[in-house]
Amino acid sequence: MNASTSSKRQPWQSRPITQVLAVIVVYVPLYVFALWTNLSERTITLKELFLYPLLLGGGGGVLVLLLFRFVCGERLANIQLKPGKWYTDIAVGILLGLLSLGLKMLQGVVQSKLIPSTPSPPSEEMLTLFSGIAHNPLLIAIWLGPVVWIGVAAFEELTRVFMLNRLWKIWPRPVAVWLVLLLSAVLFGLVHIYQGPMSMLFISIQGVLYAWYYRQYGRVWPLIIAHAIYDSLQVIQVVMAFSGA
C-alpha cells in the first residue's frame, strides 16, 4: 500500500489479530441481520425498508471508518490503495455499473435457460417497496438518493474494501490475496441469499470484479458509484413497470 500510516499508531493497532477482529466486528452484525431478515416470517414494512438502510447501513459505514481510523490506526485516506482523479473515478464507476447490469442481464438469460417455466417472483419486501414508492415522487427521490448511495452502495462497498484492505495487509502473498478476494465475493453473494441461488452466484461474480478492480487500481469511489448506478437503474425500471409508464 502506497500511503503511509499515522506516525502515532500504537503497536497493538498493527497486529494481525486486531485486523481480523475488526473485520469480524463489521461482518458479524451484517450476516446476523441478513439471516434474521431471511428467516423471519414477518413481512418488513415500507417504513422499515427505508429506515434499515439509512440507519443500519449509514451507521455501518461510519463504524467501518471509525474502526479503520481508531482501531486499525490508519489514516482514512489509506482506504484508497492508490491515488486517482475524481473524473476517472466517475467514468470508471459508470463503466463498472454498466458491466454489473450486463451481468444481471446474463443472469436472466441463464436463469431462463435452466428453469424457463418457473421465473423467480419478487420477494414480499420488494413488492412492498415498489408498490409503495411507484406513485410517490418524494419516496422515489429519497430511495434513489440517500438510501441507495449511503445506506446501500457506500455501506456495502466500504464493508467490502475494509475486509480486503485489512486482510491483504496481513496476508500479502499472491495466493492469500486471491483467496481473500474470492472469500469477500462469496460472502457478499451469501448476504443476498433472499434473492435466490442464481442471484447469489452472479452477485459473487460481480464481487470478484469489484474486488479485482480495488486490488488492481486501489480506488473505492468507482465501486460506490457503480453499485449505486446498478441498484438505481433496476429500481427505476421496476418502478416504471409498477406505475404503468
General description of the model:
- The model is unreliable at 1-6 (pLDDT under 50).
- The protein starts with 15 loop residues before the first helix and ends with a helix.
- With 245 residues, the chain is mostly helical.
- It has helices at 16-39, 46-71, 86-114, 124-133, 137-170, 174-190, 197-217, 221-243.
- It has one domain (15-75, 84-243).
- The protein is built from eight helices and no strands.
- The chain is globular, with a radius of gyration of 19 Å.
The H-and-E topology, N to C, reads as HHHHHHHH
How much β-strand is present in the residues?
under 5%
Number of helices: 8
Q: Enumerate the spans where pLDDT stays under 50 for 5 or more consecutive residues.
A: 1-6
Instruction: Give the assembly state of these chains.
Output: single chain
| Main beta sheet | none
Short account of what is shown:
With 245 residues, this protein is mainly alpha-helical. The protein is 75% helix and 0% strand.
Give the topology:
Layout lengths: L15 H24 L6 H26 L14 H29 L9 H10 L3 H34 L3 H17 L6 H21 L3 H23 L2
Task: Give descriptors for this structure.
single chain, 8 helices, globular, mainly alpha, 75% helix, 245 residues
